[in-house]
Amino acid sequence: MTGTLYLIPNTLGPTDAVPGALAHIIPEHVQAITARLDYFVAEHAKSARGFLKLIAIGHPLARPLQEIEIAELNVNTPAAALAGLLAPLLAGRDAGLVSEAGVPAVADPGADLVRLAHQHGITVKPLVGPSSLLLAVMASGLNGQSFAFNGYLPTDAALRLKRIKELENRSRSDKQTQLLIETPYRNGAMLEALVGGCQQSTLLCVATDLSLPSESIRTLSGAKWKALLASGKAPDFHKKPTVFLLLAQ
Description:
The chain is α/β, with parallel strands linked by helices. It has two domains: 4-126, Tetrapyrrole methylase, N-terminal domain (Cobalt-precorrin-4 Transmethylase, domain 1, 3-Layer(aba) Sandwich); 132-247, Tetrapyrrole methylase, C-terminal domain (Methyltransferase, Cobalt-precorrin-4 Transmethylase, Domain 2, 2-Layer Sandwich), CATH 3.30.950. Helix content is 35%, strand content 20%. It contains eight helices and ten strands. The chain has helices spanning 28-36, 45-58, 82-90, 111-119, 132-140, 157-174, 187-197, 222-230; strands at residues 4-8, 39-42, 69-72, 95-98, 123-126, 147-152, 177-181, 203-208, 216-221, 242-247. A five-stranded parallel β-sheet has the order 3-2-4-1-5, with helices on both faces. A five-stranded mixed β-sheet has the order 6-7-10-8-9, sandwiched between helices. It starts with a strand and ends with a strand.
């Protein structure tokens, strides 16, 4: 009998290691399931151990932290290595797939492992937790009935502008909210590109540090964002995880 692959949500940013730190982010039953596992697949073992330390504050771990096995799966992992990551599950051992932030397998390299697990008949169990994309859609005031996540845009300015116009046109024709993300240190350049590339009536939402004490969410028209940027009142989002959303009017 095969084990179960649990998809374990992580926090969306730095969290103090104090009692109850996860209470408003990760449900108790998810913490309890996480604590009983002794095999994890994560993007980076070091950050996964940091997450398990937070879990251990309220839920004793199945084994001492240094004895818990953590295998890495990230953009550098070759496809041929995925079978080895699943081997413990095929032998009957439960495992947890943990993202660096938010839910695994969404904008996350874990999706390939989940697909392979299905091919091998392994039970996949998604657990409830924070998703920056869904939180951003919820709080944006934009269309939550139809939306699409587009990941990262090209870094080349001309190609990025072309892509922005494509997304705006799609948003207008399909009445669909478009979501995208950027490397945090380039947030300022992305907002400037969106403001410069979109029509003034297009609604733009900037959602930063979702679920964290420094959370900031603001939806304005392109014209109002342009005025804010011109007055030097850009959002405080440098090097902070941010979701950008647009809806053409």
